[in-house]
Design a protein that fits this description.
With 396 residues, this protein is of the alpha/beta class. The chain folds into two domains: 4-255, Aspartate Aminotransferase, domain 2; 260-394, Aspartate Aminotransferase, domain 1 (Alpha-Beta Complex), CATH 3.90.1150. The protein has helices at 4-9, 13-19, 46-51, 64-77, 88-99, 114-126, 168-177, 190-193, 227-240, 246-277, 297-303, 323-332, 379-394, and strands at residues 81-85, 105-109, 130-134, 150-156, 181-185, 203-207, 221-225, 283-287, 310-315, 338-339, 349-352, 369-373. Helix 5 packs parallel to helix 6, helix 5 packs across helix 9 (227-240) and helix 12 runs antiparallel to helix 13. The structure holds pyridoxal-5'-phosphate (PLP). Pyridoxal-5'-phosphate binds at residues 87-89, 113, 160, 185, 187, 207, 209, 219, 221, 342.
Length: 396
């Protein structure tokens, strides 16, 4: 029989998702890897113990369970190595701690996930790192913001809540010219629809809590680095001890098996609803990068292979003092959508978005912004639910 790895390397993405990570032959033919709960690993003798001369040495440094997931993620990301951390937020903060020191400067996109900004404005500030926020559409113009001590440029595309696109290759080229590391929160696209390392990013960040886990029951982060940045990332992980739990690693690998088909459904339903919403009374704008009306759509078309299932709508707001009442009326009328944070799970979720933290990328002001995570439910039922929300908002 031909080598399994060779066959899989040339296979389609769903085939690779079904088989990546572990070889059943390694575990007596069981299809899934074992869940290894471990702190202590025993050594056969003192010399091996002294030299750490065996594959596994301690639970924080990897197990057969985390190795299986690691191999799958490295293959998807095209990375030299991946660390696991206990949440998507830690997948941002750990690499920031890896590459930034007191006296350094970082550039962070203004449409960033809010807790990332909070980390920058509090802990990084306390540690002596300064941060400036830049316009997501800045492209190569980011060069004007680079300082002699700029060590890290953080990207996130599409942006949180308002979905602004970024010219990642242009930004990465400028950052590299000035010796800065480029990180990207790629949670929206997953490596199925965008592979950051192929576009010049050094470190790809993923809240695996979302699509990889896929069932709203696991918190998990992955950080994947290219060869030049792997050692520093790995050393930081070992130094901080921010390892992830074995049951969670197992659940994320389990989620990966179906992530391709789930994403296809999320994509299809979300696009159908986004297109419908563009023509609906009471909606002033739909913020979805795969819509040709969306600023930045050309960047999405150029670089991305697909779109996931989360986007926002801006309601016709009337007077600013009625925006909140309209948003609440919309949310309170929903029966299928849950009112909750996070996304990437099997179920619809809605949230009234606050953009009050923005400094340069202000976002829409004509009405309230509602973020919709489109789940795996039937589209006609989701549409009927949104219609209930819109009718209630119109009545305010
Ligand atoms: C873009 C983005 N990055 C990171 C995170 C953090 O993930 P977690 O909830 O696992 O901390 C989120 C969570 O909503 C997110 O939307």
């Amino acid at each position: 029989m031909k080598n399994r790895d060779e066959i899989l390397a040339g296979a389609g993405v769903n085939t690779r998702l079904a088989h990546a990570g572990n070889d059943p032959a390694d575990y007596y033919g069981f299809v899934n890897p074992p869940v290894v709960h471990a702190s202590t690993v025993l050594f056969p003798n003192a010399a091996t113990m002294e030299n750490r001369g065996q594959k596994y040495t301690y639970g924080t440094r990897g197990t057969p369970t985390t190795d299986a997931l690691c191999a799958a993620i490295d293959e998807l990301e095209g990375s030299a190595g991946t660390i696991f951390v206990p949440s998507g937020l830690a997948a941002v903060t750990v690499p920031f701690l890896a590459y930034l020191s007191a006296g350094d400067h970082a550039l962070v996109v203004d449409s960033v996930y809010h807790p990332t900004r909070h980390f920058c404005d509090t802990m990084l500030k306390r540690l002596g790192v300064t941060v400036d926020y830049y316009d997501p559409m800045i492209g190569a113009g980011i060069e004007a913001l680079i300082k002699p001590n700029t060590k890290l440029v953080h990207t996130e595309a599409p942006g949180s809540n308002t979905f602004e696109m970024q010219d990642i290759p242009a930004i990465a080229a400028v950052a590299h010219k000035h010796g800065a590391v480029v990180t990207m929160d790629n949670t929206w696209a997953t490596p199925l629809y965008f592979r950051p390392l192929d576009f010049g990013v050094d470190v790809s960040i993923h809240a695996a809590t979302k699509y990889p886990a896929g069932h709203s029951d696991v918190l998990f982060g992955t950080v994947s680095a290219n060869a030049a940045h792997w050692e520093q990332l790995h050393d930081t992980q070992i130094t901080l001890g921010t390892c992830a739990a074995p049951d969670d690693a197992y659940q994320v690998l389990r989620g990966l098996r179906t992530m391709g088909v789930r994403l296809e459904r999320h994509q299809q339903s979300a696009l159908e609803l986004a297109r419908w919403l563009e023509g609906v009374e009471g909606v002033s704008r739909v913020l979805h990068p795969a819509l040709s009306s969306f600023p930045g759509h050309e960047l999405w078309k150029r670089d991305f292979k697909g779109a996931s299932g989360i986007f926002s709508i801006v309601l016709d707001g009337g007077a600013p003092d009625r925006h909140k009442a309209k948003a609440h009326a919309f949310l309170d009328a929903l029966g299928i959508f849950g009112l909750g944070y996070s996304w990437g799970g099997f179920e619809c979720l809605a949230v009234h978005v606050s953009l009050s933290d923005r400094r340069v990328a202000k976002g829409p002001t004509e009405g309230p912004v509602l973020r919709l995570q489109i789940g795996l439910e039937d589209v006609k039922d989701i549409q009927a639910d949104i219609e209930r929300g819109l009718a209630a908002a119109r009545a305010v």
